[in-house]
Amino acid sequence: MPLDFLDLGARAAVDSALHRLVRAGDVRRSGRGLYDYPETGRFGPVPPAEAEIVAAIGRRTSSVMQLAGPGALNRLGLSTQVPARSVYLTDGPSRTLTLAGRQIEFRRTSPRYLVVPGTTAGLAIQALRELARGNVDAGVVDRLRTLLAEEDLQRLRRVRKQLPAWIQEVLRPILEGGE
Question: What is the DSSP pairing of strand 85-90 with strand 65-68?
Fold first, then answer.
C-alpha cells in the first residue's frame, strides 16, 4: 500500500515510484492501492496470498477482519470443501473484491460477532457458528481440542461470557482440561 511508504517521501513521489515499478514488472498491482511482489511458480504467476491482501485492506480501512462461514471450517480442517468465495466479517465497509478469479466478500457485522478476530480461537467460534447448534459432534470437539493452543484457550476463557450459551456448552469440555 502506498501508505506504507509515506515515511520515504511525499505521496505523489510514492505513487510515481510504484507506478514505475509496476510498469517495469518489479511490482504487481493486486487491486486499488494494493501491491505485491509477483512470484512465478512452476505453472506461471502465483496470485498474492489472500491473508496478506485481507490484512492490507484491514490496515487501509482501520478495520478488523475475521474469516467466517465455510472458509473457517476449511481453515480448521473441519471440512474438506474449499469455498469458491471467502467471506470475512468486518467492522469496516461491506464490499466484494475479485482477486485472481476468486471472490472475497467483506460483510459488515456487529462487534459481538467479531470476538477475538484474527486468531485460531476466533476461527473456532466462527466455525461453530457455521455448523450451528445441532451439528457439533464429538469429532468437532476433539479436533478443536487438538488445534487450540494454550493462548487460544486463555482467549476463549476471557470471552466465554460474550458467546451464545450453546457455544459455551460446546467449549466447556475443551476449556475444562486446562482450568
Answer: antiparallel
Residue ranges of E strands in the chain: 28-31, 34-36, 39-41, 44-46, 65-68, 85-90, 95-99, 102-108
Grid-cell match 515510484, residue found: 17
Q: Is the pLDDT of residue 123 over 60?
A: yes
Rounded Cα distance between 55 and 85, Å, is 17
Q: What is the pLDDT of residue 6?
A: 67
Contact criterion met (CB below 8 Å) for 116 and 159: yes
Task: Give the model's pLDDT for residue 153.
Answer: 92
Integer Cα distance of 11 and 4 in angstroms: 10
Q: Is 66 strand, coil or helix?
A: strand
Rounded Cα–Cα distance for residues 1 and 56 (Å): 7
Mean pLDDT of 147-170: 90
**The C-alpha cell that represents 96 in the structure block:** 466484494
pLDDT in tens, 32-43: 777 777 788 888
- Planar angle of CA 120, 126, 131, nearest 5 degrees: 125
Show me where the domains of the chain are located.
Answer: 12-39, 49-176
Q: Which are the contacts of 79, defined by CB distance < 8 A and separation ≥ 6? A: 70, 73
pLDDT tens, residue by residue, 45-73: 887 788 888 888 888 888 999 998 899 99
Place of cell 457455521: 130
